[in-house]
Amino acid sequence: MPWHDLGLIRRALRRLPAITKTWTATSAIAGCLLATAAFAQPYPSKPIMLILPFPAGSGIDVTARLVADQLGAKLGQPVVVENKAGANGAIAATYVARSAPDGYTLFMTTNSTHSANPWLLKNISYDPINDFTPIARMGNLPFIMVVNAKLGVRTFAEFVAYARARPGKLTYATSNATGVIGAATVSRLSGLELVQVPYTSAPQAMQDMLRGDIAMMFVDYASGLPHVQAGSIIALTVTTANRSPLLPDVPSMKEVGLPEFDMNSWNAIFAPAKTPPAIVNTLNRALRAIIDDPKVREKMRQYGFDAFSSSPQELDAFVRDELEKWRKWIREAKIEPQ
């Protein structure tokens, strides 16, 4: 081999470490880009979990399954409903708060977890404001005050007279925050002494009422309306100051003499805190399109649900206002945190 060829080889060998470092760095960058491209797949690229805070058969469960089917069709991925009942919804709320903020774990919930629990429970392991990203309101799930038909009362005034004549002897069922605070508020404003019987779900409480074990309860339309229509229980009033278009024949709280009582159970969808804005916007657009569909609204109305939507910003402001409102109600009802 000629001497000048050997010189070229020696110079190439001396440059080898620099060439190797450059190649290694280039390979690392390429690897990162490939990993990023693989991660940044269009959302959604897999099934989405929709977590509920109450058992199957409850009012929120019925509407959630309708929304899940519609949302899955719009996004092109299945939306699977999972019930995580317990602790007035705190178990489900904690689960979602600790989930990855990637848009694949969503939370359809009510005022129980985001308005009442911070004041009803001494120790909760989530923050209703800071641990969640608002997506969209779904609407309101109105409640009615119902009594066992076997009591023989047909109006709110008759029930008040009946209960006052039997202090400490009538029971009322509770399975959610609206039921707890509604009954406590009515008892305080009307001067009643009633005995609370807690339940894990509205359907379970309703079964005991139909058997005659419970005298009164506040129940969502979806769980109570079929039994009202059948005559098994009597609807005395809705929980709002004005009559509901879903039950136009049932008087409002204002009409039965409690104008300061105006309570509604709301329904909304959240994601864990720090969910990317692009995912939030994708979900909000899809959910608003679902709720704005007249056929969906009519179906929800049949379930006793007053459907309407919102922006994430509107939901955020609403939740903050409701948190203060429910704090006031709970303190006025003199309910001690448990």
Which CATH first-tier class of the largest domain would you pick? Alpha Beta
- Provide the CATH architecture of the largest domain: 3-Layer(aba) Sandwich
> Tell me, what's the shape?
globular
Q: Strand arrangement, largest sheet?
A: 2-1-3-10-4-11
User: What is the H/E string?
Assistant: HEHEHEHEEHEHEHEHEEHHEH
Assign the CATH superfamily of the largest domain: Bordetella uptake gene, domain 1
Give the biggest sheet.
6 strands, mixed
Average pLDDT metric: 87
Q: Characterize the quaternary organization of these chains.
A: single chain
Distance between the termini: 92 Å
Structure description:
This protein has two domains: 48-141 and 265-332, 3-Layer(aba) Sandwich (D-Maltodextrin-Binding Protein, domain 2); 143-238, D-Maltodextrin-Binding Protein, domain 2 (3-Layer(aba) Sandwich), CATH 3.40.190. The protein is 47% helix and 18% strand. It has eleven helices and eleven strands. It has helices at residues 3-39, 59-75, 90-97, 111-120, 156-164, 177-190, 202-211, 221-230, 277-291, 294-302, 312-332; strands at residues 48-52, 79-83, 105-110, 132-140, 143-148, 170-174, 194-198, 216-220, 233-238, 266-272, 306-307. It starts with a helix and ends in a 6-residue tail after the last helix. Residues 1-13 and 16-39 have low confidence and may be disordered.
